[in-house]
């Protein structure tokens, strides 16, 4: 099923013609209403009229997170405050958070795109959606909420936290779908079991998980623990919020980017050069329909690759593969680059371990070191009166990390339930170098 059949299946040439028309409009608008864009375009010696094809977009300067911070809070808005009906802010995971605004029409577009996501996940108005994304300044909660209402589904506005209550609601209201971060889904599954609830026999059949990096191995875990199909959703407040891209239940390989509203590019984060589709790089978005807070060539710092192969669901929109992580999350351990999600992919699924881990980065002399802390399962722990068993496991994990990722790590097995649990975005890395 496709929510907006017409726009989600546009043939490439028609889609690109639409993108170009919308691009011209947004460029004119930002040039004439946002001082920042007028200055940066002028400095680059390009005017909106110089952009005569989609490819010409590359002549325009990038917009960075730093630019947003320098214009905090409302400096990049393209409409007067009287037209803004909603404000949100990014979670501030990597520094001062950025503020974003929406007009009535922006909220309308956002709701439609989120409704498209739900339909891509196989949901209809007959579904009950348990929304455990945080409500508030974070875009996750309200974004998913409005989309669920637009679809006509029944939405349970749970927000994050209060996990025992969430488990009761999951049992009593019988939602068929759940939205939250993958780490919180794992947390819910664990606490549910601890309360004696058979988490596999709930009515849930779909999980829509995002807002943080996760691995296919974690997907297998969640699908198994909750007896659901787990799908990936992507978004960021600067560009809109959740619903910029969504995996479809037919394809399950990469998330369709709603290209009638966003132009996507992948670039080399060092040089800024545009990469051919399929190559891993930093994702850059230009918004085509946003009124209050349009963004031109916004560097997300998220690293992924684009998939142009047609998808069996019939949507023509390009897909983006799993996000390995943000370029600023990338660890460089003795010269080898590694994302926390890659370590997760190695750990999750090793027999005898739990999918709860924490990475500690430190410095010894001039070299960075990585310690991987991971929980062992209750069973392993109960049977591990012999230190040898645990030592053998540690050696095996060290070897797997070295074999798959080329990184030498220290591994520390820890007791079940001893590491931190998360209600929103997980924070996996402790960086002792900065202390
Ligand atoms: P913050 O940047 O402060 O965390 P947001 O709440 O807007 O602010 O979060 C957006 C970011 O969350 C994205 O830029 C990306 O790094 C991450 N993210 C969102 N969805 C996913 C996903 N499905 N997979 C990996 N990372 C994601
Ligand atoms: Zn698809």
How does this model look, in words?
The chain has 435 residues and is α/β, with parallel strands linked by helices. The protein has two domains: 1-324, 3-Layer(aba) Sandwich (Rossmann fold); 331-434, ANL, C-terminal domain (GMP Synthetase, Chain A, domain 3). The chain has twelve helices and 21 strands. It has helices at residues 5-8, 12-33, 35-44, 65-70, 104-120, 139-151, 163-172, 182-194, 216-226, 340-347, 378-383, 387-405, and strands at 86-89, 99-102, 128-131, 154-156, 177-180, 206-210, 229-236, 241-247, 255-257, 262-267, 281-287, 298-304, 306-307, 319-320, 325-326, 331-333, 336-338, 353-364, 367-376, 410-414, 429-431. A nine-stranded mixed beta sheet has the order 4-3-5-6-7-8-9-14-13. Strands 10-11-12-15 form a four-stranded antiparallel beta sheet. Strand 6, helix 9 and strand 7 form a beta-alpha-beta unit. It binds adenosine-5'-diphosphate and zinc ion (ZN). Zinc ion binds next to loops.
Provide a concise account of the structure shown.
The chain is α/β, with parallel strands linked by helices. The chain contains twelve helices and 21 strands.
